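Objective 1b. Sequence-to-structure analysis of endo-polygalacturonase.
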Amino acid sequence: MHKMDRLFIFFLMGLLMLTACGAAAKMVYTDLDILKKLENFDIPEDDDDYDTKLFDLPSFTSRGSGKSLVNVDTFGAAGDGVSDDTQAFVSAWKQACGTPKSVLLVPQGRSYLVNATKFNGPCERKFIIQIDGTIVAPEEPTNWDPKFQRIWLEFSKLKGVVFQGNGVIDGSGSKWWAASCKKNKSNPCKSAPTAFTIESSSGVKVRGLTIQNSQQMNFIIARSTSVRVYKVIVSSPGDSPNTDGIHITGSTNVVLQDCKIGTGDDCVSIVNASSNIKMKRIYCGPGHGISIGSLGNHNTTGIVTKVVLDTAFLKETTNGLRIKTYQGGSGYVKGVRFTNVVMQDVSNPILIDQFYCDNPTSCQNQTSAVKISQIMYRNVFGTTKSEKAIKFACSDTVPCSHIVLNNVNLEGKDGKVEAYCNSAEGFGYGVVHPSADCLYSHDDKGLDQSDKSGPALVIEEAETGHDEL
């Protein structure tokens, strides 16, 4: 713990001694407890060294490897980027999935055209999908199978499976983007496929792949547990609509590490029924930043807890660290720590928006809201394009509580930056620039209404894509 941090803790303890009883003592005890929780909160990573153990594999073709190699070319894949190789992939999957210690190989130097397909498990143990070549989607939206409106490549019901390689998953999304109502308001608003989806799985690892030019979202982790994503590149143009980089929904114990993400929407988005999410060494830009939400649309319940971002660089994104919820929702976002973040020319660097609206029609004013509490921003530095470098736009009826700012320094190009708060309670210590004096200290009433959000029924369906382009 830094010296200044220790001094602040001692200050709080001294204040406790001076306020022997009553609301002030209760307030400081609560702040001290929450501060310790946020400072010590972490998500455990794998025990093994993935660089040397998991991925330092012997040659798949050597006798001593013990692996059963299943090459898609063996099943008739042309690999010319023009011929339809879908059936070859389905047949290869069936054999590899049903064979212990198998490796499904997509060879390098070749391009495979594959239509929308669901690859289902469960599979035999120690299954590896080695993607070294390029998998491309059909370009024409009009030729897309209507049964698979929201998916291109979906992998479900897997356990302990590894996706790895230096290959590319290319969604060929340009015609989908041109048909978006966000590109042209005369176009109908409709859903579009996600390039790569891990669905209802556990113990999955994804390493080294490039996912690019998705029709809509690039990579979704849905209703899964213990997923590890390492050294993945996600790339779509900055003006491609709704192309979230990595979207986490209904999932727990997810680690994203050493990933480089540039998209036309959120670099990372974390939505309902997700918890224990850790992001470490993330590059984001272009894009809409790193977001929790949106939550609460159409009066639904949304819950996100225990999220850590540790070490990130955001460049020229339209938002930085964002939590976004609709009016009328319920549930809570609780226990979030953003640490060691550098920003370069980022708009809205620190943003909580409980009045978010991205619907085709305007959103109505409503009193209920998703409760936001226990949010820490620590060691956040850089430059911003926005005069309001810190913005906490919280609900009057369900205020944000226990927001902590520690060592935050955001500079504007013209030197003028400010913080804005509406119904936001918390405190700052260390260097905080711009000053967040607008954060108010809670009274007894504020204490009584905060942090009593226990387990709740999750009624918002885990998202698997945007409703509209």
